[in-house]
Amino acid sequence: MSTLALARERAPDADFRPRFPWLGGDLQTMRNFLIRSTSGRIADLSRWPAERLLLAMQDGSGDRLVASLHRPADRPTARLRRAPVLLVHGLTGCEDSTYICASAAHLLQAGHPVVRINLRGTGPSRATCRLQYHAGRSQDLVDAIAGLPRDLVGDGLYAIGYSLGGNVLLKLLGEGRAGLPIRAAASVSAPIDLGVSARCIAHWRNRLYHRWLLGRMIAEALPGTVSAAERDAVLTARTVIEFDDRFVAPRNGFAGAEDYYRQCSGAAYLDAISVPCLVIHALDDPWIPGDLYRQVDWAANPALTALLPAGGGHVGFHASGDHVAWHDRRIAAFFKGQ
């Protein structure tokens, strides 16, 4: 690894210390789910009433993504106004995912308008879409951004992608699309090599995660606009890789799971990213191997800043000293400097 990349890892901002009792990658990963399932608690966004947005996709499908727009309670002057932030959820998530609501609350408190988007076929977008999202559907973000209110994005916006949403965002940023109003971006726990990540989640030590995730993927796909053959493919899939190979890949024009993974993995697009982008990943993430991130020469692209703490789990980062997640604090600080 390059000297610069090591320096970035060891910088004070990368000094993550877990909050007791959430010790280790697994507890960090499960904490959001455990807290929500036992108490029903998510971040309270009632201070910032949501405005419903319907964002049309431009592929002729008639699909529209549903999003929630929140504006800061105190309207700042033009000089102090902060750019809006688009939040993109992960696999089987939606606008109400615990980490999305927590990030939204922190960013709104800091003065940013926030857009919580639901990708195709998820959450409220389920009723307005025939098609479904996947890890490489970056055009959907282009269309969604184009549909945001002009007064909101006139001076640009920030974007954050979590897990699979992070991969979609990194792919988008590296595709060299002209005219995107994204001023800066961040990814959290993105599966930048989809094949390696799919095989990791299927490993025996992750069997409970795998069973839970595959069950949610199947439930998300059904019922939906699927043929009888697709329904059979979904119901007979025994692994995430089989699900991708039998359902996601053929439905979206890929030759199979490996072709889908090869074309859509974010790692292939990192070198071409030109906007400031903060990449956060925990080296003890049980779903996505830390070695994927250690193998990247972060110094090769000055637009990228990598924070790779030893702990934090998968979209966890529950740190000592503050109940605001560590990644939310690091991202807010990063955007403030752009």
Describe the structure.
With 338 residues, the protein is of the alpha/beta class. It has 2 domains: 3-193 and 270-336, Alpha/Beta hydrolase fold, catalytic domain (Rossmann fold), CATH 3.40.50.1820; 201-264, no CATH class. Helix content is 37%, strand content 12%. Strands 1-2-4-3-5-6-7-8 form an 8-stranded mixed beta sheet, sandwiched between helices. Strand 1 (51-56) and strand 2 (64-70) form a beta hairpin. Helix 9 packs antiparallel against helix 10 and helix 10 packs across helix 11. It is globular. The model is unreliable at 1-13 (pLDDT under 50).
Condensed summary:
The protein is of the alpha/beta class and 338 residues long. The protein is 37% helix and 12% strand.
Question: What are the SSEs and their pairings?
Answer:
Elements: H1 3-10, H2 25-39, E1 51-56, E2 64-70, E3 85-88, H3 98-109, E4 114-117, H4 139-146, H5 150-153, E5 157-162, H6 164-174, E6 182-188, H7 194-201, H8 207-221, H9 228-236, H10 240-251, H11 257-264, E7 277-280, H12 291-294, E8 304-307, H13 326-336
Parallel strand pairs: 3-4, 3-5, 5-6, 6-7, 7-8
Antiparallel strand pairs: 1-2, 2-4
